[in-house]
Structures are given as C-alpha cells and as structure tokens.
C-alpha cells in the first residue's frame, strides 16, 4: 500500500492526479450517455400516438377522463416503487479500488458521525436525493396530467363536465403539481442548486446589513415568503394527490368490467409515456450536469498546476490546496447512477458517492 503524500507538493500532485483521473472518467461517461441517445426522439412517437388515441377515447367515453386522472395520480404518488425495483442498476463509472464501503463498521462509524454533524451537508444530500429524482419526471407528468387538464377544459368549453362536482378539485390539484414542478426545476437540486440559492440569499442578507434595518427586514421577509410558498406547494403537490386520488375513486358510478380493462390499458399507456420521457429528461439532465463537472474539473486542474508552480509561501499554498479540495469533494461527493428496464429506457439519477461520503478525511474538507 502506497504511503500518503507528506510534503505540500506531494499533496498537490496527488490532488492533480485524482482530478485528472476523475476528469477522464467524466468525459468517458459523457460520451457513453450521448451514445445512448440514438433515435431517442423516434421512441417518443408511439407513446405520443397512444396519448392522441386516449384523447379521442375520452371524447367518445367521457368517463375515461376520471379514470385517466385516477391512474395518473396513482402513478404520480407511487412511481418511486419502479426505481426500487430496477432490472439493472449500476454506477456510471469503473469499479473503484480501495473503496471505503469495504471497510469495517468501526472504520466507517467516525465518518458517519461526522456526516451527521454536518447538518447542512446532510440536509442538502437528502433534498438532492428526494427532489433530484423528481426532475426527470417533470416532462412525464406534465404530459400525462396536461392531457387530462386539456380534455377537462374541452368539456367545460363544450358545456359538458365529465367530472361533475370534481372539476375544481382536479384543476387545483393539477395546477399545484405543475407549479411545484416549475419550482423544482428552478431549484436544480440535482446540481446542488438549493445550496447555491441559499448562499445567494445569505450574501443578500449580508449586503442588507450595511444598508440598515429596513433592508434587513425586507430581505428576511422575502426569505420567509419564499419558504412559506415552497412549503405550501410541496404539501399541495406531494400530500394532497392521495386525497384527490381517493376522492376521484369514490366518485365512480356504475363501475364495470370494461372500466377495469380500460384502467389497465390507461395504466400501461401512462407507464410507457412516463418511462420514455423520464429516460429522455434524465439523459438531458445527466449531460448538462457532466458538462458543468467537466468544466469545473478542468478549472481545478489548472488551478492545481498553478499552485504547484507558485512562488507563494507554504501557508498560502496550503490554504489554496484546502480551497481546491473543498470545491472538489463538495462536487464529487455525488455520483451518477444508471437504471434501466430490461436493458431499455435507461434513467440517470444523482446519488451519494459512498467512497467519499464514508471517508472521514474527505468529509473534513466539505463545508456543512
């Protein structure tokens, strides 16, 4: 086993080598994901054609609109189950040697305790995992629920309400979900956007202190308002759909075997639409994220090379290396995972990189 670098120059060189290796892996991953996008738009033609047929079916059989919303809200509420049962799940990088996941519990426990003490990092990671997995689904459920919304508006304009007495409930529910999706995409949790936004507001609050008490109150009020609106949207988009789902379910009248077969067909259509669009959106998300990472890694590598040849004193160079390590590990503590169904419709998700998350020395460099 190689001994750890002792001198500052050795540590800078070790960082440069690790960054260079990571840069190469991220570039290879980017090319691999791009290669999986062959005929990606052609794959959407069949699901979109089926949605068009569903629209015609709803016009001919208005009760199908309620069934469409029931299936859509059920799939919206429980789609995470599909991610818990992937046919294939793998890290989008070569298997890492010397991974900390092979260490015993005694070796991992100090790192785990340190992680729990870094509350900001723990909260950020939880939000990244939870909200980041919603981002690829925004197009899927915008299409699914948007179709239902469009048909509902059509019935209202033509003087016939397919969901008599439930129109307002459905409209409010779908609008809450879509506005929440807009918020999630704005926050960009998969790219640590929530942390970036929080730091931005912190800087604004710091600047407000120099302008007096009125400016401080204004900024704090804006923060409270944004948080309150976000909480309301989150509750409306994540908790109320269950209530809306059961309300629609209990509103069904004269339910028969034909309706049961229709629900099965609508579920198959929505599942197909959801997975195809989720695959496309997650691919786009992964490519955007990798471009950002590659640019940042190239910058860090250039800064490390400049630090190696710098004539500054040891203390300044040491502080410079700490800054580089903090930026590097804050970004690379997240990994990209690939999941698919029978080798098709791959979905890319952002998750914790255990090699770093369970390494006490690494965590010491990550703010939080």
Question: Can you characterise this structure?
Answer:
By secondary structure, the protein is mainly α. It contains 15 helices and 3 strands. It has helices spanning 8-35, 45-60, 63-78, 80-84, 105-117, 119-132, 138-157, 167-187, 193-209, 213-238, 240-250, 257-308, 314-332, 354-357, 360-363, and strands at residues 88-91, 334-341, 344-352. Strands 1-2-3 form a 3-stranded antiparallel β-sheet. Helix 1 packs antiparallel against helix 12. The longest helix has 52 residues, at 257-308. The chain is elongated and about 80 Å long. Mean pLDDT is 81; it is low at 97-101.
Distance between the termini: 31 Å
The overall pLDDT average reads 81
Outline, from the CA principal axes? elongated
Report the order of strands and helices: HHHHEHHHHHHHHHEEHH
The tally of beta strands, per DSSP, is 3
Quick tags:
mainly alpha; 3-stranded antiparallel β-sheet; 15 helices; 368 residues; 3 strands
Give the SSE layout.
Layout: H1 8-35, H2 45-60, H3 63-78, H4 80-84, E1 88-91, H5 105-117, H6 119-132, H7 138-157, H8 167-187, H9 193-209, H10 213-238, H11 240-250, H12 257-308, H13 314-332, E2 334-341, E3 344-352, H14 354-357, H15 360-363
Antiparallel strand pairs: 1-2, 2-3
Quick recap:
72% of the residues lie in helices and 6% in strands.
């Amino acid at each position: 086993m190689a001994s750890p670098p002792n001198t500052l120059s050795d540590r800078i060189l070790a960082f440069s080598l690790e960054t260079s290796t990571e840069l190469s892996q991220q570039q290879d991953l980017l090319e691999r994901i791009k290669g999986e996008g062959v005929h990606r738009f052609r794959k959407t033609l069949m699901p979109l054609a089926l949605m068009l047929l569903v629209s015609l079916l709803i016009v001919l059989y208005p009760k199908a609109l309620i069934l469409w919303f029931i299936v859509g809200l059920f799939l919206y509420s429980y789609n995470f189950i599909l991610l818990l049962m992937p046919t294939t799940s793998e890290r989008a990088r070569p298997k890492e040697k010397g991974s900390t996941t092979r260490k015993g519990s005694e070796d991992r426990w100090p790192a785990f305790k340190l992680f729990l003490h870094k509350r900001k990092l723990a909260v950020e990671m939880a939000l990244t995992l939870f909200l980041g997995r919603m981002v690829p689904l925004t197009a899927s459920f915008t299409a699914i629920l948007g179709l239902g919304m469009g048909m509902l508006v059509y019935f209202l304009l033509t003087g016939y309400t397919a969901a008599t007495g439930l129109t307002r409930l459905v409209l409010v529910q779908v609008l809450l979900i879509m506005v929440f999706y807009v918020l999630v995409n704005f926050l960009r949790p998969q790219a640590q956007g929530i942390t970036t936004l929080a730091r931005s507001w912190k800087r604004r609050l710091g600047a407000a202190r120099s302008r007096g008490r009125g400016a401080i109150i204004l900024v704090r009020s804006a923060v409270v308002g944004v948080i309150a609106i976000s909480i309301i949207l989150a509750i409306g988009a994540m908790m109320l759909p269950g209530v809306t789902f059961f309300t629609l379910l209990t509103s069904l009248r004269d339910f028969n075997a034909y309706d049961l077969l229709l629900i099965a067909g609508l579920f198959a259509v929505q599942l197909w639409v959801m997975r195809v669009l989720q695959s496309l959106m997650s691919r786009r998300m992964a490519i955007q994220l990798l471009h950002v990472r590659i640019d940042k890694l190239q910058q860090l590598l250039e800064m490390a090379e400049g630090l190696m040849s710098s004539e500054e004193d040891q203390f300044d160079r040491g502080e410079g290396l700490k800054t580089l390590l903090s930026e590097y590990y804050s970004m690379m503590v997240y990994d990209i995972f690939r999941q698919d169904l029978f080798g098709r419709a791959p979905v890319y998700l952002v998750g914790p990189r255990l090699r770093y998350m369970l390494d006490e020395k690494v965590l010491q460099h990550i703010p939080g």
